[in-house]
Design goal:
Distance between the termini: 20 Å
Structural class: alpha/beta
CATH superfamily: Alpha/Beta hydrolase fold, catalytic domain
Number of helices: 8
Strand content: 5-15%
Largest sheet: 5 strands, parallel
Number of domains: 1
Helix content: 40-55%
Strand order of the largest sheet: 1-2-3-4-5
Shape: globular
Order of helices and strands: EHHEHEHHHEHEH
Radius of gyration: 17 Å
Length: about 240
């Protein structure tokens, strides 16, 4: 189960992974609530990661899938970790890429309050891709939803996004992060890794926010992911 980040599959999607991992894994790449072909919404609140994690568990119910491996990017990484808390018997392992630990992000290069008010502040190249994927009349709402959810989280300064429960995660976790991630500095992810039992941490010195979508790093990143997912798959089969 591949879970996209805050701008949807139009930007930093999993095209490379769907081409290269399909020989070994059945891949499911849904649009989250409010994105792409899924139901359009107006506004995310501060609990949107938890709401979307519940959505994903219900999505698995609808597909009659008992157990999955999850790879989440950015907001999708947060959702993947929350799924491991909500449904520990159904998540065989998860990859946490380019994610976040804390609710308030004062170090982020993205001024969420300004983007919430004016989605046109994001790069023009991204605007075009978002319009093509989400629709010319809806893409700005997608960005407002995303930025507004994070603005709502600002009121929870000092809290983590997992309600203090990361130590309850029981499945294997692989944390992938780039030193140059503009949203989250490495020290925050190192702290997240310390809070998750048995988590592995891989920090790419030349990586940014979307290592899986980087031409320079995507092959090595995906191979590491393949090996980790294979281990999880074998461990699940042995249970």
């Amino acid at each position: 189960l591949l879970i996209h980040g805050g701008w949807g599959l139009a930007v930093n999607g999993f095209e490379f992974q769907t081409r290269t991992l399909a020989d070994e894994f059945q891949l499911i790449v849904p649009d989250r609530r409010g994105y792409g072909s899924s139901t359009h919404v107006v506004g995310f609140d501060a609990d949107f990661h938890w709401q979307h994690a519940h959505d994903m568990v219900r999505f698995l119910d609808a597909l009659k899938i008992d157990r999955v491996l999850v790879w989440g990017h950015s907001d999708g990484a947060i959702i993947a970790a929350i799924m491991a808390l909500l449904a520990p018997d159904r998540i065989g392992g998860f990859i946490f890429e380019g994610g976040h630990l804390f609710c308030r992000k004062p170090d982020s290069d993205y001024p969420m309050d300004k983007i919430w008010l004016d989605p046109m502040l994001i790069p023009e190249a991204a605007q075009s891709r978002l319009a093509d994927y989400h629709g010319a009349d809806y893409w700005q709402q997608v960005i407002r939803n995303w930025a507004g959810g994070w603005v709502a989280l600002h009121d929870r300064a000092g809290e983590d996004l997992y309600r203090g429960r990361l130590s309850e995660i029981t499945c294997p976790g692989l944390i992938i992060h780039g030193v140059h991630d503009e949203h989250t500095f490495p020290h925050e992810i190192e702290e997240l890794a310390r809070r998750i039992p048995h988590a592995r941490l891989m920090i790419y010195p030349d990586g940014g926010h979307s290592i899986h979508d980087s031409r320079a790093l995507r092959e090595a990143c995906t191979q590491m992911a393949r090996e980790f997912l294979r281990e999880c798959k074998l461990a699940s089969a042995a249970q």
